[in-house]
Design a protein that fits this description.
Elements: H1 11-14, H2 22-30, E1 45-47, E2 50-52, H3 57-62
Antiparallel strand pairs: 1-2
Length: 63
């Protein structure tokens, strides 16, 4: 049964250029970690606030 909550973000919200999702869109397009800014070369993990490298991912999950 759905509780009516979803943490999904629509593409049009990401690329609208305003709102809380600008940082997520910028790091996704640049293929940069939302935590440390390093290049996401392979195996990125995507959380509620963007893509994360394997070093930052455990910190995002515990937040």
């Amino acid at each position: 049964m759905s509780n009516g909550y979803s943490n999904a973000v629509l593409v049009r919200e990401l690329f609208a250029g305003d709102g809380p999702f600008v940082h997520i869109a910028d790091t996704f397009v640049a293929a940069r970690c939302a935590g440390c800014g390093s290049e996401l070369t392979h195996d990125p993990r995507y959380g509620e606030w963007g893509g994360f490298c394997t070093t930052c991912w455990p910190h995002e999950r515990s937040a």
